[in-house]
């Protein structure tokens, strides 16, 4: 039996996960478990890059993420689930990589500029924020994975990781394979207000939301902005509710809604109600699994600790090679 290729990815613990997280990454991770040797980590040190002033929520957010992961279908029988800060070797490799990473590489990072603009209410003029791609590179290459599954918007992160690995190898020998970029499909989905779904925007539907909460949120969703009255024909192509229908409603009903909307045969209120029913039904298995794990906090903690111990074994092996290459003894 051939050995599976290892892949690795992670999420920052900034709160409970929403549909954007599910469709943008988590659902793809779940589907990859049978094909790859999967390592998925909670990047709690990364949460400090922007939330260093108040760290009180990180521990609870860490618990929320692992609950969402397990509820969505990640399983310790198929994947190694671990916590970044429980594998101290990440920090050691980050230090070594920071010695060789040129500052202009970090300053040209498109996400750096984007987040500086988005989070203008925070002081992000810190070394940690500028250098987070170096920590991210350490997170990845310490496991010497075959690849990193990401959406197209995250591709620059993998590329700078490849550049850093290449530069390390140039100085110290062939230690790190350059991880492949594994592009994953991300369905089009926006928040309630048609902006990107985000906790900070207050426009998200969370995996942990109750059916009542989902129905209430869906009722507030913005539809075709040009459709002012029930009798006006609509355009499903510009309606975010219709995009949800395509994901969570059966294809025959989707075709009917498309035709009825264009001919004013269905109103937005009824259309939202139908979509909410489909979404609630689709998320029911996730809610049931979440309830199971919420009642077993010791099991959840055990999964995180065992996964972190397994990950650390590999990280320690890598650092032995790294120290020898850099000629720094233990």
Walk me through this protein's architecture.
The protein is mainly α and 330 residues long. 55% of the residues lie in helices and 8% in strands. It has a 3-stranded parallel beta sheet. A two-stranded parallel sheet has the order 4-5. Helix 4 (89-98) packs across helix 8 (132-141), helix 10 packs antiparallel against helix 13 and helix 11 (240-248) packs across helix 13 (268-294). 35% of the residues are buried.
Task: Please render the helix and strand layout as text.
Blueprint: E1 6-11, H1 19-32, E2 37-42, H2 44-51, H3 58-72, E3 79-83, H4 89-98, H5 103-107, H6 110-118, H7 127-130, H8 132-141, E4 147-150, H9 155-172, E5 180-183, H10 211-219, H11 240-248, H12 251-262, H13 268-294, H14 297-326
Parallel strand pairs: 1-2, 2-3, 4-5
Helix pairs in contact: 3-13, 4-8, 4-14, 8-9, 10-13, 11-13
Labels describing this entry:
5 strands; two-stranded parallel sheet; Rossmann fold; single chain; Tyrosyl-Transfer RNA Synthetase; about 325 residues; mainly alpha; 14 helices; three-stranded parallel beta sheet
């Amino acid at each position: 039996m051939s050995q599976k290729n290892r892949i690795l990815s992670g999420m920052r613990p900034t709160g409970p996960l929403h549909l954007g997280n599910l469709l943008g990454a988590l659902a793809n991770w779940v589907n990859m478990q049978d094909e790859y040797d999967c390592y998925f980590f909670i990047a709690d040190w990364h949460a400090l890059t922007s939330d260093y002033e108040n760290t009180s929520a990180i521990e609870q957010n860490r618990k929320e993420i692992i609950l969402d992961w397990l509820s969505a279908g990640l399983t310790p029988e198929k994947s190694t689930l671990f916590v970044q800060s429980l594998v101290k070797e990440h920090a050691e490799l980050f230090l070594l990589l920071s010695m060789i990473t040129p500052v202009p590489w970090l300053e040209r990072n498109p996400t750096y500029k984007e987040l500086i603009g988005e989070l203008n209410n925070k002081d992000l003029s810190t070394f940690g924020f500028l250098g987070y791609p170096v920590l991210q590179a350490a997170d990845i290459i310490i496991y010497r994975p075959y690849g990193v599954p990401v959406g197209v918007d995250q591709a620059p992160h993998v590329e700078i990781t490849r550049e850093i690995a290449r530069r390390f190898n140039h100085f110290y020998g062939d230690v790190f394979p350059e991880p492949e970029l594994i592009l994953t499909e991300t369905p089009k989905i926006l928040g309630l207000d048609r902006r990107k779904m985000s906790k900070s925007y207050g426009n998200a539907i969370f995996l942990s939301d109750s059916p009542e909460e989902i129905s209430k949120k869906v009722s507030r969703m913005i539809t075709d902005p040009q459709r002012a009255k029930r009798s006006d024909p609509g355009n499903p192509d510009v309606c975010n509710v219709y995009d949800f229908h395509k994901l969570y409603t059966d294809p025959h009903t989707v075709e009917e809604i498309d035709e009825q909307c264009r001919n004013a045969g269905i109103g937005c209120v009824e259309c939202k109600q139908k979509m909410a029913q489909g979404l609630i039904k689709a998320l029911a298995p996730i809610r049931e699994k979440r309830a199971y794990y919420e009642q077993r906090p010791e099991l959840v903690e055990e999964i995180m600790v065992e996964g972190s111990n397994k990950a650390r074994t590999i990280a320690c092996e890598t650092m032995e090679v790294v120290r020898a290459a850099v000629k720094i003894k233990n």
